[in-house]
């Protein structure tokens, strides 16, 4: 209820503050018998690390900070695994946070950064960890990616595969590699370079395509497949919108145009909240990173307005690093719906 | 888990098939002491009735069907109320379905209507009620509106007020009345008339504005305020997209533009998933009603393709009738988050 | 969260106050394809009706009240059923309450009956329906029996069968019929007659035996099979204790005696919270009905002590009527665990 | 759903296998602003350590094993704490397992210990960690005690205090110290010594008393206070029964005897599932430790019967070490119900 647990049957709890001792997650409900290794987790975590593009990083000693974080993102599996297979018991994954200079954040103790959750957290809890956003830091998504890596492994067994990519930055479409699995990084870097030079940041779009989803996934009424995905995507801090298939364009169409016939997939693979067997397609809109190099005006705890210059490293555009997060959340939603689907029909004892 | 229960503390279960004996809902968790009457429910149900606009209705004996439904939508409160106040026990609300000609739907027993959930339900459950879509019928939203009426009453006590309106039909903006509470119906009817004449249907947009939300609502990480609202909106069958504040436009902005300063509300009243104290603003995209007067090709249970003409009444555009549904789902989300918020801080015994 | 929803996958919500318009339940999660009829519900409801034993009834116009209630317990299935089979959608069951003389209860408006929940409800909600206990009335168990009837039908498909019986009244063991399915009613009536003559009431024991439970049911750690059953049984108002297998006697044993070898079932069919494949056996202790014919002292809303004589019919011993309730709750627990069990192992797509 | 998450609002997930890398828990829902330190956790963990009584330990190098475990039970708080207070974010607590000789357990890889969950786990998951019982080991209760320590701290703020003690061993009552907070350890050791000498083990009783519970805790119908406590207690592996207040004796009473008047507390502080404001009193029955020094017959994976001698240390009677576990589970139940209680009445905005 307190918002840190996701899913019903394939259930994940995440924990950790950006500058506390550690980040981690516990997966309760991953079926027994799944082959899993720490490498499965590690390879996904690498994809969301900062500093992968030299152009997507701003702020004081950016490189240093990145590399520090790189060291920190080493996962350890604490439970749920036995001789290379899942036990059907909770899978706990731990990632230690690297040491950080607390002093670097002291000026934010009583100041609420524009576009961040700082003021809301203070109002909600009456206390907050101001260091790097604490629990509201984007670093929390590390735990989702770790859990998502397990969900992806589980889904692969059913032939379900998820791929996401940056489809636009600051309103400009991104050229894609042939397999759609990766954007053209040179293209992305060029866009970021300009914005970085302005001491600014940029919004972006992340697209997602899911192949191999069987017909019939998604629970009717309140837990529709697209409802679950929308809830999952909007739970990622910077996301401000989502659309499935034709999405907002469908609102401008007539029925005769929108009803899928033949080759179109205006429905994005979901009708009435249930998978149609076609590819699932959706797009998510990410707002620009609110932390920018330019000096800004900010509210403080006393309701006053102060001048604020944000130190520490931050991204120019979050979209590139959000790609594995979008995939992870999609995987967690689908893994949960796959398990839920098992209970919708009369089975025989042998299938219990 | 089976998808018919919504919320955590202000919890609602809905039941009923379009052409079964009755529709209804049970609210578990509405606090004790709330003044409530059957009129509170009735006045919301009236807003979603079909046939309110003569232009928003197509199909055989449209008027007759509408009026029949009008009679049917009389709510009865079965429990949870005592001498005009809620008891803190489950509030059950029942609405009987009017009799319908089953024969009218016989041709759909083994045919899957294009753009509907028919095929998905068959794949999922191996059995379905083909009469008017059964459980997947838009009629299910009647139960949400009934439950939402109770949530609205609850929220009004905190000074939280929700208003939605049709902001566009088939891509054309709708003129609004001054208070934004209602679209210009003459304008709407004019748009619908053209589409109806073509034997077609249209998509539309519904906007929502929530005033009086205190700062601090929304649970961090997975149960963010906007995540909950997105999940709720996409759980409405025809919705294909949602955006908060600047939404998709934010993905095209730079940080210096998007960070709210002064009068803007690009965040739509939500930062990091927590309410900022500003108005909550979002837009939802509704696809065109898939049932159209024109003959269509459809799949049948044997995988064959058949000619299909859909009988029975259906709407030209669902947006006008979806307005109270959007408000109801918003109310259910906020009522739940209001109750959840109570448990976030240490309280004193007297506040238990 | 508000306590009126039971189960995780085979989920039930009950509603209704003793003297409100109706009682009922909604089952969300019963798999599709189960053959079900209103007779399946009716035959279980008949088993818990009052006035089945002329000796187990006290108070003014007892017979009249009973017969009135008999008329009232006619179930109606409002949803979830299509052509004799479950749809996989919510199954709503409604039972209307018969009219009652409100005046009969007026003297209880501000008086808290000894041994009842009256004072607790007033403290909890600040409002209560004083007529016949309102929501805290034993009549609420009618809804559990209705839902349990569906769960029993579901379990029968797996060869799982539940039987309960009164094993003792006021400390005296009850002779049983050969098949243990029924106590010797003549024996029971003889015991009740004496107590009734004293204007008193009596406690009793209800035993339960479940045959055909496959090995492996029950979720480790917090949702153990016996933990679920214990929670379910103690949720029945008058139950004050439960024991599995050797139960309290096991606390007096040595390991060499208690470890099952060969023919014993000291574990009661559960080890470490997981079914062993042996019969599940447990006993529940019911306290005496607190409403007695003798005049009593009672607290009133002002904290004063008043003389109280309870009018209206009440049972001498609740155990006989609790038998179908114990079976129903057992069925709801097992149905839920059967569905949960499906998600514990890697399956193949065809089993989704 | 997979059984490793406890509670609704004050929610705990535990993880870890007995001989895996670590044990731990994550608490999601502890309100912000609670003063907490690692010492609060440590002092509770010390109470459940093995080897506290030299007489309550059997098996090869008992002392060594104990001390090894002692080293291992050092808790680390990984998140949720900032400058000595809870943040309202997940509190993760980690305890590393000490190294163990795997070889010591190799003979149990394909053998199911009598009276243990081994066979059930194998049937359920098709895979298990045979080393020391893996996830089904009593060592899992360490995580409950750690989480319970936080719940106790939370409850202390409301003046709610829990105390448990060993009230009987192998059927003999234990003399208590004056304040009932501790059994007479000399008395306990004397009992254990005899049984140990026989190479056997013993069952026992643990009593619990909760002072300071306000009137009105417990959710009606399915989440009654005693239902929650019963479910919590039976979730402790060795518990076979529970009774509240007069308990099983009440089943032998008449209403006129059982209805509390004046000084008695036959209800054990709970009526209709809601706290009465009197002390909450219950007793739990623990079966004898199934692992005994005597050679036993056991089933193996092939269905054969083999001779088994259990190596490694094990307790003579689990009751003494179960005392802090009973307190911890009671604290977790009450903390959850305290938070749930906050949502039962209309409040004012300032109380959100």
Walk me through the structure.
- 4 copies of one chain form a homotetramer.
- The first copy, chain A, has 352 residues and is of the alpha+beta class.
- Chain A has helices spanning 38-48, 62-72, 118-125, 141-156, 185-197, 225-234, 255-258, 319-341; strands at residues 5-6, 11-15, 22-28, 75-77, 81-82, 85-86, 91-96, 111-112, 161-169, 172-173, 204-211, 239-244, 270-271, 274-275, 280-286, 296-300, 305-308.
- The first copy, chain A, has 8 helices and 17 strands.
- In chain A, the strands form 5 sheets. In chain A, strands 1-2-3-7-4 form a 5-stranded antiparallel sheet, with helices on one face.
- In chain A, a hairpin with a 2-residue loop joins strand 5 (81-82) and strand 6.
- The two termini of chain A are 29 Å apart.
- Chains in contact: A-B, A-C, A-D, B-C, B-D, C-D.
- The interface between B and C is large, with 46 and 46 residues.
Low-confidence stretches of chain A: 64-69
Structural class of chain A: alpha+beta
The greatest inter-chain interface is formed by: C-D, 103 and 103 residues
The number of helical elements of chain A comes to 8
Distance between the termini of chain A: 29 Å
- Series of H and E elements of chain A: EEEHHEEEEEHHEEHEHEHEEEEEH
| Strands side by side in the biggest sheet of chain A | 1-2-3-7-4
What is the quaternary state of this protein?
homotetramer
Please state the CA-atom Rg of chain A, rounded to the nearest Å.
21 Å
What coarse outline of chain A follows from CA principal-axis ratios?
A: globular
Number of distinct beta strands of chain A: 17
Average pLDDT of chain A, to the nearest integer? 90
Helical residue percent band of chain A = 25-40%
Largest sheet of chain A: 5 strands, antiparallel
Strand share of the residues of chain A?
A: 15-25%
